[in-house]
């Protein structure tokens, strides 16, 4: 069993503990030089405490079973804003937030994520169209199938809305 499969199994065991049931693995990367990056999320939000506990749980396993007396690097964190959404569960957790979607063969779309299901996502976009000399501003829903999405990034807004 490779290191990613082993780490997945150990982490998923931890998800059986009270307080960790809504956590899930987003991605595990095994990099050269015995470096392991683990990206997690929770439906209720990933706290620093949960991250530390999962890290310690995995570290104990690695120390005993995989990389005994060997120097390695383990990083356990949430994916962060610079990493694209990968799982339907992540999309659902970000409903109501602004996203930028790189759509295969047609550029980028930006809008508020309003829905996500097994087939794709729906974003609410503001568009401006002309009717004679008037500019009409309206909001339209744009459905984008997962098969056409290259990547989706959550956009951070520093504007406070009242």
Describe this structure in words.
With 162 residues, the chain is of the alpha+beta class. It has two domains: 3-77, K homology (KH) domain (GMP Synthetase, Chain A, domain 3, 2-Layer Sandwich), CATH 3.30.300; 88-154, SH3 type barrels, CATH 2.30.30. It is 23% helix and 42% strand. It has three helices and eight strands. The protein has a five-stranded antiparallel sheet with strand order 7-6-5-4-8. The termini are far apart. The model has no long low-confidence stretch (mean pLDDT 91).
Short characterization:
The chain is of the alpha+beta class and 162 residues long. It has 3 helices and 8 strands. The chain has 2 domains: 75 residues, K homology (KH) domain (GMP Synthetase, Chain A, domain 3, 2-Layer Sandwich); 67 residues, SH3 type barrels, CATH 2.30.30.
């Amino acid at each position: 069993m490779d290191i990613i499969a082993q780490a997945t199994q150990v982490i998923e065991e931890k998800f059986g503990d009270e307080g960790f049931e809504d956590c899930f693995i987003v991605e595990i990367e095994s990099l050269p030089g015995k470096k392991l990056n683990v990206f997690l999320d929770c439906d209720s939000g990933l706290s620093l405490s949960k991250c530390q506990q999962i890290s310690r749980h995995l570290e104990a396993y690695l120390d005993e079973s995989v990389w005994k007396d060997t120097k390695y690097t383990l990083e356990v964190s949430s994916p962060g804003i610079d990493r694209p959404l990968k799982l339907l569960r992540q999309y659902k957790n970000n409903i109501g937030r602004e996203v930028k979607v790189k759509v295969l063969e047609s550029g980028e779309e930006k809008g508020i994520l309003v829905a996500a299901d097994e087939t794709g996502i729906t974003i609410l976009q503001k568009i401006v169209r002309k009717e004679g000399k008037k500019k009409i501003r309206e909001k339209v829903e744009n459905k984008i199938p997962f098969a056409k999405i290259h990547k989706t990034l959550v956009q951070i807004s520093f504007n406070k809305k009242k």
